[in-house]
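FORM 12-B: Structure-to-Sequence Request
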């Protein structure tokens, strides 16, 4: 890189060269330098426009992405992923409730007359499924695991006074 002094000397060389030119050549040199300057300004403008176009393109891409996400939301504001997790939870809770119903009517050890696992195994499976659905909800941040645990501790204490048969053997 040139120092300021070197640049100044270059400029002075150019000035001396220009002063020594005959009048006709002076005009040609002026035209040459003004054309070169216009080309330099135009190139800088093109660079600026290219930058603006790239920025506008990025903004449009972001807007397009946001519109696509908004279009996927339902009237409730839920995303397809949130809806799917809630649907799985509802389905598994329903299946667990069905397994409880079978045990209440036929006992833990009975099973369907058409075969399959016992009602106890069926309930264990469905409770496991419910836990998976809950895990998905907490992992996604739909519900807060800490608040669920806090409620568990609170409920364990509060429900004790309303349970009349616990702690009396089987
Ligand atoms: Mg299930």
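FORM 12-B RESPONSE
SEQUENCE OUT:
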């Amino acid at each position: 890189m040139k120092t300021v002094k070197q640049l100044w000397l270059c400029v002075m060389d150019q000035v001396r060269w220009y002063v020594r030119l005959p009048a006709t050549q002076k005009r040609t040199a002026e035209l040459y330098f003004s054309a070169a300057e216009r080309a330099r300004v135009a190139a800088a403008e093109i660079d600026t426009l290219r930058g603006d176009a790239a920025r506008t393109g990025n903004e449009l891409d972001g807007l397009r992405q946001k519109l696509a996400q908004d279009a996927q939301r339902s009237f409730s504001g839920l995303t397809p992923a949130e809806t799917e997790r809630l649907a799985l939870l509802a389905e598994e809770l329903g299946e667990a409730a069905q397994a409880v119903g079978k045990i209440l009517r036929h006992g833990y050890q009975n099973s369907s007359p058409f075969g399959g696992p016992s009602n106890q195994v069926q309930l264990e499976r469905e409770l496991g499924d419910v836990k998976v659905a809950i895990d998905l909800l907490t992992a996604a941040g739909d519900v807060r695991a800490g608040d669920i645990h806090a409620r568990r501790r609170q409920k364990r204490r509060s429900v004790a006074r309303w349970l009349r048969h616990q702690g009396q053997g089987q």
